[in-house]
């Protein structure tokens, strides 16, 4: 299985979520959240398509790449800054570096919070992201689903019912 940015984000959110998603169980995005994300992209970043490039390479898809300034932009509709988001863009920088587009920076943007988090290139990313990639493969190929984590984020997780109600 090809590792994607979503897998890396879930690795940092919940290993059970990663396993369920990668094994095709349930749906992460309801049509409502997809519509919301689309609306944010269309209204807040209307002029970006003209300035920035879309990049798809080795399982990752970057909507806004600023080739002139060597910056990857990732837009999150979340109203919370999460480590999973920065991990996801670090993975993007790693994949791009492996493909000869290196020493980039990335910004995770939160339009709802009017906030942005910068991620700078660091040679250690090569080692760190490569380990994440291996960790993802080990988890998704495991025969058993990891246990529930009983965390605050569970309440807003699309797998909540599956994890806490259906069992
Ligand atoms: S509800 Fe909680 S335990 Fe279940 S997948 Fe989501 S985050 Fe993980």
From TrEMBL:
Residues 4-164 form the DUF83 domain. Coiled coil: none annotated. Keywords: Exonuclease, Hydrolase, Nuclease. GO terms for molecular function: exonuclease activity. It comes from the Bacteria. This is CRISPR-associated Cas4 family exonuclease. It comes from Pseudobacter ginsenosidimutans.
